[in-house]
Each structure stands twice: as structure tokens, then as C-alpha cells.
Design goal:
- Helices cover 25% and strands 33% of the residues.
- It has 3 domains: 232 residues, Distorted Sandwich (Beta-galactosidase, Chain A, domain 5), CATH 2.70.98; 81 residues, Immunoglobulin-like (Sandwich), CATH 2.60.40.3080; 211 residues.
- The longest helix has 14 residues.
- The protein is of the alpha+beta class.
Length: 564
């Protein structure tokens, strides 16, 4: 059967949580507390399957793979339960240790239990989706886009991850994956995870460290430089071997206990199995390895312990060597030192000097482009962004910024091929949907249907506003914020709109109205954490010193993030 992507739903029993005041580990997200009771809730799911396996993805639980069914062994790879158990752990105080999820540091993402954007992935050869894209703005300066695909007639899941530092300062990072419960061990060039029900073997040269159920890029936190992309891919091979796994290769998985031997082919071929026992006996038997069936061989007649299994094909080429035990572990190293970077308000002379530094050339041209936008020199800004792309063509936000500068300079929409490049790099980037809105004519006061999908991850409205302000697209920010407030009413959006009114000049009454509408007794999420937000709030506080709500928000945020 061809690969299939379909929407479904799943009813789960899950503990109820309440949002509490954040701390330094959870900010800008609230901490979570148990309420002491559970209820059944229906979650939207996306099923991705081929003839070998089916996975169930839950977008509103961090985009995790909650269930993985192996069609050949008719088993779940890990124990699936419709009751979701939570742990008191992690940056927000509560974690969900179930399923397979993407990580950007040691430990779960702060939004690992929240909603993520998603869209089907279409290949050029097919009119039907071949996979699924997931996307998230992580709340710590990073954004994620990851793709899941189940190629037709292939017994593996393709995983492609793109982690991007969208901020102007270095961000700690260590990409990887994690599966709730169990641990990873090395088998040849593969990493293997086992449970009672099945096995996952990961082919990925980029993942080389395991800790606490996670498989990571590095044995320490590294730093992603401003606007740096880290992209990596993996193939994940499921099988029904389970906890008895002794070896895995790109040809077969095998394991045994006292009762039976199990062999699952990644490919299908004829060959033989050679078994070496502890008493130095060597046994041979013919073998038909199949990727469509789990082979089970009874061992009740074997009175000796197996020391090693070798699987050969018909040409006697070795396809798998499985010793009785093979575990490799490494030690975590110290975190890398924080690298130097340019300040966003660096002076022209500093930027010129930085252009000779290979590590800062891209950033210096990016900031030069922002400076030209502040002066209304849209074509000059587009030229600066073009120079930035010469040194970092993986920066999807610069591709967008160049396209937006061209739009402001009068270029026709069909000429802006830069948006295609940006979409290729980050298919679920919210500013690309915003660009489609901003490039269209203004139509009345009805909220735009084009932006409806962003309501599923409403913090995206704040993210886009901050990107527009950071790049000095001030008039676009005014239009965007006015539209955003038709979709969601966050105090921070009103504060940003008030800031824009002051920047445009002659609109102090409108700014004061927005500040008044943003009044809250206590600060509410989404909390500010970006530098541009703090600058806007500080400017408003200076202009409206009697506003207690604004001052409370600044004091509150300043406990967790430096305000300069």
C-alpha cells in the first residue's frame, strides 16, 4: 500500500493542570501544577502509515508520536495506554513521558505539551501527501520545523529536523529525540531503543550521545549563533524484536531469550544463520529473512546459551552480527562557552569591521539591511540582505526580509522567488503566512481567513509582530497588529501596537487607548521575552509613567530576563 496521511481523533484520560507563575526555568511559559483530578478529552490526531507501520501524531501534545504500531508483528512498539501519566519534572514542573518527541536541549521542550503547527507534505511526484511537517516557535529564541515521512514500500520513518536561532544572540542548544521510558544502546553504527513490545533502531550519524531516554547531537550543550540553522536527518526502523534485542543493522534486527529467537529483516533475502554457543559449538541453519514478516525460531531444543549470532546472505556476505551484549555509553562534557556576537544596534563602523570576520559577516549585512529599512531605503536593504545570504543561504528569515523589502520597494509579487526559498527552509514559519496577508490589499474590518490557522498557535501573532519591528517594517507592524487583535486579544499585542503608534508619530491618543485596553490586575501570558518587546515596554513606561499595569509587567518580566 502507498503511504497514507489522514486526520483522526483520539480520546485520552489526562490529568488536569493549572498554570502557575513562571520561574527562571519555565519563563516565558507558566509553570504547571496538578489539580488532582483527571478527565477524558478528545485530541485531534494525524495518522501516517505504510504497509509496515502506523504512527499516531498528536499536534496539541507538542507534535509527539504518541503511538507506533508495527504492522508485521501486530504489536505496539511501546506500551500504548489511553490514560496519559504525567511526571513532576522538567522546566515547567510537569512532563509527559510518553511517545517520541523532538528535543532542543537536555530535557523536554518547554512547549512539549502544547500545540504546534502542522501541514501535509507533498512531493513533486504525487498529488497526495507523502508526509507531515510540524513547526514551533519555541519561546527561547529557537524555532523548529520537522518532517515525518513514511516512504512507500520502505520499513522506516524518515525524520528531518531544522532548528533555527531566530534571535540576535547565541542560544544554548542540543538537538535530539527522546522516547518515554527505556534507554538507548549502540549496536554497530545504529542506536537502538527497546521495550517489551518492540524496537526502534536509528540510523543517524548526527546523533552520538544518549542520556535519560534521549538521543542527542552532542554530549554537551552547544550554542547556535544568531540566525544559525542546524539541520539533521534520521531514519528510524521499527521491529517487533523487543527487549530481547541483541543486534541491529541496516539489513536485519535480531534478538533472543531462553524460548525463541526473533529476526526481522529490513531487506528480504535468503541466507543462513550461524550461532556460536558458550560451549564453543557452532550451529548453522538456512534462513529466509523478510522485511514483511517477523521470523520466530523456537529455541527449546537448544540446551546451550547463545554467545553470538551472525546472519549471512546467499553470497555469504555478513548482514548482521549480534553478540550477547553490546552497550556503549559516553560521558557528558562541560557546556561550550558562550560565543561573542554583534549587538543589534551596532554602529556602522562596527558592522564594517565585522564584515571581515567570517563568523559575523552574515549578521553584519543583516543588521545593515535593518538599518536601511529604518531609513526607508528598501532597495538598499534588499541588497544588504542579498549580501547576507551569500554568507548564510540557510537563513529563511533573511530570504523573507529580502522579499518584504522588495515588496515595499514596489516589486511584483510573482517576482519574489525569495519566498519560495524561505518556505523550502521553514515550511511552517508564521511570518510567511503574514507576508501573504501583508502583500494583499486591505479589505474592510473582517478578520482575514488566511490567518485563521495561526489561531491554533496564537503566540505566532506576537512572534510576527516582533519580527516586523526588529526589521523596522513599522507600517507593516501597525497593519499586522491591528489585524492580530481581531484574532486574539493579548495585552502584549496592545502594548506593541501602542509602541508602533508612538514610533509613527502624531498618534499618542491612539497609543494611550491601547495602553488602557491592555490593563490587567496581574501579568498574563504570553509573557515578553524578546529584546524588542522589552524596548517597546520600556519606552511606553517612560511615556505613561502612571500606568501601574505596564510597570507591573516590566517588573515581573525583569525577574526572569534582563531588560536591556
Amino acid at each position: 500500500m502507498p503511504a497514507d496521511v489522514a486526520e483522526d481523533s483520539l480520546e485520552l484520560a489526562i490529568e488536569l493542570l493549572e498554570a502557575a507563575e513562571p520561574d527562571s526555568e519555565s519563563y516565558p511559559f507558566p509553570r504547571l501544577r496538578r489539580l488532582g483530578r483527571s478527565e477524558r478529552r478528545t485530541f485531534r490526531t494525524i495518522l501516517l502509515e505504510n504497509q509496515h507501520f502506523r504512527i499516531t501524531v498528536v499536534p496539541d501534545l507538542g507534535g509527539r508520536i504518541l503511538r507506533w504500531e508495527d504492522m508485521r508483528s501486530h504489536q505496539d512498539i511501546w506500551d500504548f495506554n489511553e490514560r496519559i501519566d504525567l511526571l513532576e519534572a522538567g522546566g515547567r514542573g510537569i512532563e509527559l513521558a510518553a511517545g517520541l518527541q523532538i528535543r532542543t536541549r537536555f530535557g523536554d521542550r518547554l512547549n512539549s505539551m502544547g500545540p504546534v503547527a502542522n501541514a501535509p507534505d507533498y512531493t513533486e511526484e504525487s498529488e497526495s501527501p507523502s508526509g507531515l511537517w510540524m513547526g514551533e516557535v519555541c519561546g527561547d529564541g529557537l524555532s523548529l520545523n520537522w518532517r515525518l515521512a513514511a516512504p512507500h514500500d520502505s520499513p522506516f520513518l524518515e525524520l528531518e529536523v531544522r532548528a533555527f536561532n531566530r534571535s540576535l544572540e547565541p542560544v544554548p542548544y542540543n538537538g535530539g529525540i527522546a522516547v518515554g521510558g527505556g534507554s538507548w544502546r549502540k549496536s554497530g553504527d545504529l542506536w537502538a531503543w527497546t521495550s517489551e513490545g518492540g524496537t526502534l533502531a536509528v540510523e543517524c550519524p548526527y546523533l552520538d550521545y544518549s542520556e535519560d531516554g534521549g538521543l542527542y547531537r552532542f554530549n554537551r550543550h552547544r550554542y547556535l549563533a544568531p540566525h544559525q540553522l542546524d539541520a539533521w536527518t534520521a531514519k528510524i526502523y521499527p521491529s517487533g524484536i523487543g527487549d530481547s534485542l541483541r543486534g541491529a543493522s541496516l539489513s536485519a534486527h535480531a534478538g533472543w531469550n531462553g524460548e525463541e529467537m526473533r529476526i526481522q529483516g529490513i531487506e528480504s533475502y535468503s541466507g543462513k544463520a550461524i550461532v556460536l554457543t558458550k560451549s564453543a559449538r557452532t550451529l548453522e541453519m538456512p534462513l529466509e529473512v523478510s522485511r514483511d514478516l517477523l521470523l520466530k525460531i523456537p529455541l527449546d531444543s537448544l540446551k546451550d546459551e547463545i554467545e553470538e549470532l551472525v546472519v549471512l546472505d546467499a553470497d555469504r556476505a555478513e548482514r548482521l552480527r549480534a553478540p550477547a551484549a553490546s552497550i556503549v555509553s559516553t560521558a557528558r562534557a562541560d557546556e561550550d562557552p558562550r560565543p561573542a556576537c554583534l549587538e543589534p544596534d551596532a554602529e556602522i563602523r562596527q558592522l564594517r569591521d565585522a564584515e571581515f570576520d567570517l563568523g559575523l559577516r552574515h549578521l553584519s549585512h543583516l543588521l545593515s539591511g535593518y538599518g536601511r529599512l529604518s531609513m526607508g531605503d528598501f532597495l538598499g536593504a534588499a541588497g544588504a540582505f542579498e549580501q547576507a545570504l551569500i554568507f548564510n543561504g540557510e537563513d529563511h528569515l533573511v530570504w523573507w526580509a529580502k522579499a518584504a523589502a522588495q515588496r515595499k520597494g514596489g516589486a511584483e509579487a510573482e517576482e519574489r522567488t525569495e519566498l519560495l526559498n524561505a518556505h523550502f527552509l521553514a515550511p511552517l514559519e508564521p511570518v510567511l503566512r503574514a507576508e501573504g496577508f501583508l502583500a494583499s490589499p486591505v479589505h474592510g474590518r473582517e478578520k482575514s481567513a488566511v490567518l485563521g490557522p495561526l489561531e491554533e498557535t496564537p503566540e505566532a501573532f506576537v512572534e510576527v509582530a516582533c519580527l516586523l519591528l526588529e526589521a523596522n517594517f513599522v507600517q507593516d507592524a501597525a497593519r499586522w497588529l491591528t489585524e492580530a487583535l481581531l484574532h486574539v486579544d493579548f495585552p502584549v499585542l496592545r502594548y506593541l501596537l501602542a509602541h508602533v503608534y508612538l514610533e509613527l508619530g502624531g498618534m499618542e491618543v491612539d497609543a494611550a487607548e491601547q495602553v488602557q485596553l491592555a490593563i490587567r490586575e496581574n501579568p498574563e501570558p504570553p509573557y515578553p521575552y524578546r529584546r524588542i518587546e522589552f524596548r517597546a515596554l520600556a519606552k511606553l513606561a517612560a511615556r505613561f509613567p502612571a500606568d501601574g499595569s505596564l510597570r507591573r509587567l516590566l517588573d515581573f518580566a525583569g525577574r526572569f530576563r534582563p531588560l536591556n
